[in-house]
Protein backbone atom coordinates (compact mmCIF):
# COMPACT_ATOMS: atom_id res chain seq x y z
CA UNK A 1 0.00 0.00 0.00
CA UNK A 2 2.77 2.40 -1.03
CA UNK A 3 2.02 5.36 -3.31
CA UNK A 4 2.18 9.14 -3.64
CA UNK A 5 -1.05 11.15 -3.68
CA UNK A 6 -0.86 14.22 -5.91
CA UNK A 7 -3.02 17.29 -6.39
CA UNK A 8 -2.69 20.42 -8.52
CA UNK A 9 -4.49 23.73 -8.38
CA UNK A 10 -4.55 25.78 -11.57
CA UNK A 11 -4.67 29.50 -12.26
CA UNK A 12 -7.19 29.22 -15.09
CA UNK A 13 -8.78 26.66 -17.41
CA UNK A 14 -5.56 25.86 -19.30
CA UNK A 15 -3.92 22.69 -17.93
CA UNK A 16 -0.40 24.16 -18.03
CA UNK A 17 -1.47 26.92 -15.60
CA UNK A 18 -0.57 24.91 -12.47
CA UNK A 19 -0.18 27.33 -9.56
CA UNK A 20 0.34 24.88 -6.70
CA UNK A 21 1.18 21.22 -6.16
CA UNK A 22 0.74 18.96 -3.16
CA UNK A 23 2.33 15.53 -2.77
CA UNK A 24 1.87 13.12 0.14
CA UNK A 25 3.81 9.87 0.37
CA UNK A 26 2.00 6.89 1.86
CA UNK A 27 3.79 3.81 3.17
CA UNK A 28 1.68 0.83 4.24
CA UNK A 29 -1.33 3.13 3.92
CA UNK A 30 -0.01 5.80 6.32
CA UNK A 31 1.17 9.29 5.37
CA UNK A 32 4.93 9.48 5.99
CA UNK A 33 6.13 12.56 4.08
CA UNK A 34 4.80 15.53 2.14
CA UNK A 35 5.86 18.22 -0.31
CA UNK A 36 4.05 21.44 -1.20
CA UNK A 37 4.97 24.32 -3.47
CA UNK A 38 3.35 27.29 -5.07
CA UNK A 39 4.08 27.45 -8.81
CA UNK A 40 4.42 30.45 -11.10
CA UNK A 41 2.46 29.51 -14.25
CA UNK A 42 3.77 30.42 -17.72
CA UNK A 43 1.36 33.36 -17.82
CA UNK A 44 1.29 35.31 -14.56
CA UNK A 45 -2.48 35.49 -14.24
CA UNK A 46 -5.11 33.95 -11.96
CA UNK A 47 -8.73 33.87 -13.05
CA UNK A 48 -10.84 35.43 -10.30
CA UNK A 49 -13.28 32.53 -10.32
CA UNK A 50 -10.43 30.18 -9.48
CA UNK A 51 -9.19 32.47 -6.71
CA UNK A 52 -12.65 32.08 -5.16
CA UNK A 53 -12.06 28.31 -5.13
CA UNK A 54 -8.46 27.91 -3.99
CA UNK A 55 -7.72 31.37 -2.59
CA UNK A 56 -4.53 31.96 -4.60
CA UNK A 57 -3.83 35.31 -6.28
CA UNK A 58 -1.11 36.69 -8.52
CA UNK A 59 0.57 38.19 -5.45
CA UNK A 60 0.81 34.70 -3.92
CA UNK A 61 2.51 33.11 -6.93
CA UNK A 62 4.49 35.92 -8.57
CA UNK A 63 7.73 34.94 -6.79
CA UNK A 64 7.10 31.18 -6.84
CA UNK A 65 9.30 28.85 -8.89
CA UNK A 66 8.22 27.75 -12.36
CA UNK A 67 7.37 24.05 -12.59
CA UNK A 68 10.55 23.37 -14.54
CA UNK A 69 12.52 24.60 -11.50
CA UNK A 70 10.99 22.09 -9.08
CA UNK A 71 10.41 19.03 -11.28
CA UNK A 72 13.91 17.51 -11.32
CA UNK A 73 15.16 18.79 -7.96
CA UNK A 74 12.06 18.15 -5.85
CA UNK A 75 8.93 16.67 -7.43
CA UNK A 76 10.38 13.77 -9.39
CA UNK A 77 12.75 12.65 -6.58
CA UNK A 78 9.89 12.82 -4.07
CA UNK A 79 7.72 10.57 -6.26
CA UNK A 80 10.56 8.16 -7.05
CA UNK A 81 9.20 4.92 -8.44
CA UNK A 82 5.94 4.95 -6.48
CA UNK A 83 2.59 5.01 -8.29
CA UNK A 84 0.60 8.24 -8.20
CA UNK A 85 -2.93 8.53 -6.85
CA UNK A 86 -5.15 11.44 -7.85
CA UNK A 87 -8.83 12.19 -7.29
CA UNK A 88 -10.18 12.65 -10.82
CA UNK A 89 -6.82 11.64 -12.28
CA UNK A 90 -7.79 12.83 -15.74
CA UNK A 91 -7.45 16.38 -14.40
CA UNK A 92 -4.24 16.08 -12.38
CA UNK A 93 -2.45 13.82 -14.87
CA UNK A 94 -3.55 16.19 -17.63
CA UNK A 95 -2.00 19.10 -15.73
CA UNK A 96 1.20 17.14 -15.14
CA UNK A 97 1.46 16.21 -18.82
CA UNK A 98 0.71 19.79 -19.87
CA UNK A 99 3.40 21.39 -17.70
CA UNK A 100 5.95 18.81 -18.76
CA UNK A 101 5.05 19.41 -22.40
CA UNK A 102 5.15 23.19 -21.93
CA UNK A 103 8.75 23.04 -20.73
CA UNK A 104 9.70 20.35 -23.28
CA UNK A 105 10.41 17.85 -20.49
CA UNK A 106 10.01 14.12 -21.15
CA UNK A 107 6.70 12.67 -19.98
CA UNK A 108 7.60 9.50 -18.08
CA UNK A 109 5.49 6.36 -18.39
CA UNK A 110 4.73 6.63 -14.68
CA UNK A 111 1.98 4.47 -13.12
CA UNK A 112 -1.07 6.17 -11.66
CA UNK A 113 -4.63 5.40 -10.62
CA UNK A 114 -7.77 7.40 -10.01
CA UNK A 115 -9.30 7.56 -6.54
CA UNK A 116 -12.53 8.98 -7.95
CA UNK A 117 -12.97 5.78 -9.97
CA UNK A 118 -11.96 3.79 -6.89
CA UNK A 119 -14.52 5.55 -4.68
CA UNK A 120 -17.30 5.02 -7.25
CA UNK A 121 -16.56 1.27 -7.29
CA UNK A 122 -16.08 0.79 -3.54
CA UNK A 123 -18.96 3.03 -2.34
CA UNK A 124 -21.51 2.99 -5.20
CA UNK A 125 -24.32 3.83 -2.79
CA UNK A 126 -23.00 7.34 -2.05
CA UNK A 127 -24.75 10.20 -3.84
CA UNK A 128 -21.53 12.11 -4.52
CA UNK A 129 -17.95 10.95 -4.93
CA UNK A 130 -16.45 14.44 -4.99
CA UNK A 131 -13.49 14.73 -2.64
CA UNK A 132 -15.31 17.19 -0.37
CA UNK A 133 -18.39 14.96 -0.17
CA UNK A 134 -16.33 11.85 0.59
CA UNK A 135 -14.36 13.70 3.26
CA UNK A 136 -17.60 14.87 4.86
CA UNK A 137 -19.04 11.33 4.74
CA UNK A 138 -15.98 9.83 6.42
CA UNK A 139 -15.49 12.65 8.92
CA UNK A 140 -12.27 13.95 7.40
CA UNK A 141 -11.80 17.64 8.16
CA UNK A 142 -9.49 19.41 5.75
CA UNK A 143 -8.89 22.65 3.84
CA UNK A 144 -10.58 21.86 0.55
CA UNK A 145 -8.85 23.04 -2.63
CA UNK A 146 -5.49 23.42 -0.92
CA UNK A 147 -3.26 21.11 -2.98
CA UNK A 148 -1.52 19.49 -0.01
CA UNK A 149 -4.73 18.96 1.96
CA UNK A 150 -6.46 17.56 -1.13
CA UNK A 151 -3.57 15.14 -1.72
CA UNK A 152 -3.62 13.93 1.88
CA UNK A 153 -7.38 13.42 1.77
CA UNK A 154 -7.06 11.57 -1.54
CA UNK A 155 -4.54 9.21 0.04
CA UNK A 156 -6.72 8.69 3.09
CA UNK A 157 -9.50 7.47 0.80
CA UNK A 158 -7.18 4.76 -0.56
CA UNK A 159 -6.61 3.54 3.01
CA UNK A 160 -10.35 3.55 3.71
CA UNK A 161 -11.07 1.70 0.46
CA UNK A 162 -8.43 -0.89 1.36
CA UNK A 163 -10.11 -1.45 4.72
CA UNK A 164 -13.48 -1.79 2.99
CA UNK A 165 -12.10 -4.36 0.54
CA UNK A 166 -9.88 -6.15 3.06
CA UNK A 167 -6.81 -5.46 0.92
CA UNK A 168 -3.28 -5.00 2.23
CA UNK A 169 -1.64 -4.53 -1.18
CA UNK A 170 -2.39 -1.76 -3.65
CA UNK A 171 -2.53 -4.19 -6.57
CA UNK A 172 -5.11 -6.29 -4.73
CA UNK A 173 -7.22 -3.24 -3.92
CA UNK A 174 -7.27 -2.03 -7.51
CA UNK A 175 -8.02 -5.54 -8.77
CA UNK A 176 -10.84 -5.97 -6.24
CA UNK A 177 -12.37 -2.63 -7.26
CA UNK A 178 -11.78 -3.12 -10.98
CA UNK A 179 -9.76 0.08 -11.25
CA UNK A 180 -6.85 -0.02 -13.71
CA UNK A 181 -3.34 1.19 -13.08
CA UNK A 182 -2.56 3.50 -16.00
CA UNK A 183 0.69 5.02 -17.23
CA UNK A 184 1.27 8.73 -17.63
CA UNK A 185 3.27 8.70 -20.85
CA UNK A 186 1.17 6.11 -22.66
CA UNK A 187 -2.25 7.75 -22.87
CA UNK A 188 -3.29 11.29 -23.68
CA UNK A 189 -6.46 11.83 -21.69
CA UNK A 190 -7.96 15.31 -22.07
CA UNK A 191 -7.60 17.66 -19.14
CA UNK A 192 -9.43 20.76 -18.08
CA UNK A 193 -12.26 22.03 -15.95
CA UNK A 194 -12.47 21.44 -12.23
CA UNK A 195 -11.37 18.34 -10.39
CA UNK A 196 -14.21 16.42 -8.74
Q: Layout of helices and strands, plus pairs?
A:
Blueprint: E1 3-10, E2 18-27, E3 30-38, H1 48-54, H2 58-61, H3 67-79, E4 84-86, H4 89-102, E5 111-114, H5 115-122, H6 131-138, H7 147-165, H8 170-177, E6 182-183
Parallel strand pairs: 1-4, 4-5
Antiparallel strand pairs: 1-2, 2-3, 5-6
Helix pairs in contact: 5-7
Short description:
The chain has 196 residues and is of the alpha/beta class.
Strand order of the largest sheet: 3-2-1-4-5-6
Taking pLDDT < 50 over at least 5 consecutive residues as the criterion, the unreliable ranges are 187-196
Overall geometry comes to globular
Look at the structure and give the mean pLDDT: 93
What does this structure look like?
It is a single chain. The protein is an alpha/beta fold and 196 residues long. It has a single domain, classed as Nucleotidyltransferase, domain 5, CATH 3.30.420. The protein has a six-stranded mixed β-sheet with strand order 3-2-1-4-5-6, with helices on both faces. The longest helix has 19 residues. The protein is globular.
Descriptive labels:
alpha/beta; globular; 196 residues; 18% strand; single chain; disordered C terminus; Nucleotidyltransferase, domain 5
Amino acid sequence: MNFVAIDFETADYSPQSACSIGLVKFHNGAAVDSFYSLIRPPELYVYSGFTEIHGLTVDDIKDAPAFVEIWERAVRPFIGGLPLAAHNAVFDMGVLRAVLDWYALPVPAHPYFCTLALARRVWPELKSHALTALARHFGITYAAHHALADAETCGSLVRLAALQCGSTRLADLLSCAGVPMQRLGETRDPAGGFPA
